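Before relying on records like the one below, remember that each one covers exactly one chain. Contacts with other chains, cofactors or solvent are not represented anywhere in the record.
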Amino acid sequence: MQHSSRLVRRSLLASVTAMIATAFLGVIAKNRTLAQSTNQESDRYTRGIETFKRIGGADYDRALRPLEAFFPDLARLSVEYPFGDIMSRPGLDLKEREIANVAALTVFGSVRSALKYHIHGMLNVGCSPQEVVETILHAVVYAGFPAAQSSC
């Protein structure tokens, strides 16, 4: 009987040890995943801020400051997704992306502050004032005169 109870104890001890080891390894794996996720978010933010600075110039964070004070998550997301993920993608350079932004914002006709920011952005990434004018005139064809006039 003693031999049998020792086997049961050993088996129980082995099972408990295996469960603890599995739990411990799970925690380590979760922490690694969390660290990788945090690094990716940090990379997105860093990439976004760099792109944001190139477009916005010296006062690049003018629109972010009020958000950071009251809505820090929205401020972070406003940098990570549009600037860290989309504006920094390969395929189009910042000049081409800013032309597209100004054209799209002109079509909306009701987003003056964003349009103003991206008009300055066009100039900051190398567009000429004439290219800004031509981009807006081109958008008028699709936006209509009232939308284009209300955005200027």
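Residues 33-37 have pLDDT under 50 and may be disordered.
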